[in-house]
Amino acid sequence: MAVQTVESTTDTTASPASPVDLGPAAALNCRECGHRVPLGPVFACEECFGPLEIAYDFSAYDTEELRKRIEAGPANIWRYAPLLPVPADVADKPNINPGWTKLVKADNLARELGVTGGLYVKDDSGNPTHSFKDRVVAQAIEAARAFGFTTLSCSSTGNLAGAVGAAAARAGFRSCVFIPHDLEQGKVVMAAVYGGELVGIEGNYDDVNRFCSELIGDSAGEGWGFVNVNLRPYYAEGSKTLAYEICEQLGWRLPDQLVVPIASGSQLTKIDKGLQELIKLGLVEDKPYKIFGAQAEGCSPVSTAYKAGHDVVRPQKPDTIAKSLAIGNPADGPYVLDIARRTGGAVEDVTDEQVVDAIKLLARTEGIFAETAGGVTVGVTKKLIEDGVLDPSLTTVVLNTGDGLKTLDAVAGTGLTATIRPNLDSFREAGLA
Ligand SMILES: *Cc1c(COP(=O)(O)O)cnc(C)c1O
After folding, report:
1. Mutate to test the pocket of ligand 1, among 123, 124, 130, 133 (most ligand atoms within 8 A of CB)
2. How far apart are CA 35 and CA 11, in angstroms?
């Protein structure tokens, strides 16, 4: 079966072919007005300021050949290179090669939560720098190469800084990244250890992001590729690989329900894009799925808008232990609302206390130690089941996007069961026999 072009590249308004080789990526399309521009380090539409998104030419693909090519590919995200904005020889370049993380069948957690339709945890703590951010940075670094940038940068809530530091070190870029000055120690060390420059900004993530936009417009930022700002259209595509992997690991099947964390909302919107592509390419059967967004109550601009029935997302000042998700003014918030409503999902939030309980629940049932973002998704899953919103009889995938070792403070109360002298009497006295 021949495959349809996912987004037409033959319309008459198309710009001339871009000189850079980023594989099947054909151009940038405005998500709002459809205006099309050649591939380049731009992220906002010059006509309407809407976000730019990669448009592909998948017209040459045959479904069965593509499936075979993917299955024969490496055990990392580059098995999906034909569907990503990267050159065909990407797997030969120095990159930290994230992805193909475990999809854990979480039967113990399912029993605890009353899920009968199959519950899975997509565990992205297994990536090279222990968060999902390695996926998006891997794309951005190929775009940075194509556009001739020599310095890699980002505004980060912590995990991204580490992913940029590691990828830059391996690929031979200078890196200089910006974070709020008061992040968790684990995140700071993870970002600093790779030898790049790490700058703490006195302010929250939204202040950091504003500063980076200013730097891009200034001569001081010339030659800098900001993975989540001027390289954002490329960066964002990395999240599609989560959708591809989940479906392939389920035997080329769509799950019925997915629970996804929201910071800027980019990951959630691109997971939806990835699922839509698989349907259009014929790699999975076309059937409905629901996407549920998860936030922490202390930074819940999207769930607040969802519950109020609003289309616009009003910014908040974050105050939560889920710092990796603490974006008060999420760029993709309105698209998340669209997707949750269109697919029949929802957006929900949980308190910090529920986040901690959920981290412990996942750890004691499945042996997976999640960072606070994983506590948010597991906590929201539990809440949505209790509220009758998430259907426990359907196949459900919950994302864990980061590693608990980076947010040890969240479970600081956890520790020794007992301290004993090194003899059996003392062991018995402690009631451990
Ligand atoms: C960045 C991040 C996310 C989601 O980010 P988006 O901005 O919504 O794409 C989720 N989990 C963790 C651990 C993260 O670091």
Report:
1. 133
2. 11
Fold topology of 133-235: Rossmann fold (3.40.50)
C-alpha 373 – ligand 1 centre gap (Å):
8
Q: Residue range 186-204: average pLDDT?
A: 94
Residues within a 6 A CB radius of ligand 1: 131-133, 159, 261-267, 324-325, 371, 373, 401-402
Alpha carbon distance 237, 135 (integer Å):
9
Q: Which residues contact 72 (CB under 8 A, 6 or more apart)?
A: none
Q: Hey, whose CA ends up nearest to atom 14 of ligand 1?
A: 324
For the segment 390-414, what is each residue's pLDDT rounded down to a tens digit?
999 999 999 999 999 999 999 998 9
**Do 102-129+238-411 and 133-235 share a fold?**
yes
Angle between helices 185-192 and 159-171 (to 10 degrees): 10
- Please give the pLDDT value at position 8: 41
**Residues 64 and 1 sit within 8 Å (Cβ to Cβ):** yes
Q: What is the pTM of this model?
A: 0.94
**In this structure, which amino acid lies at residue 15?**
S
Structure-model confidence comparison of residues 16 and 157, the more confident one: 157
- Domain residues of the chain, as ranges? 102-129+238-411, 133-235
Strand partners, 53: 29
Which CATH number does 102-129+238-411 carry? 3.40.50.1100
Candidates 399, 209, 205; CA nearest to 293 is: 399
CA 306–ligand 1 middle distance (angstroms): 19
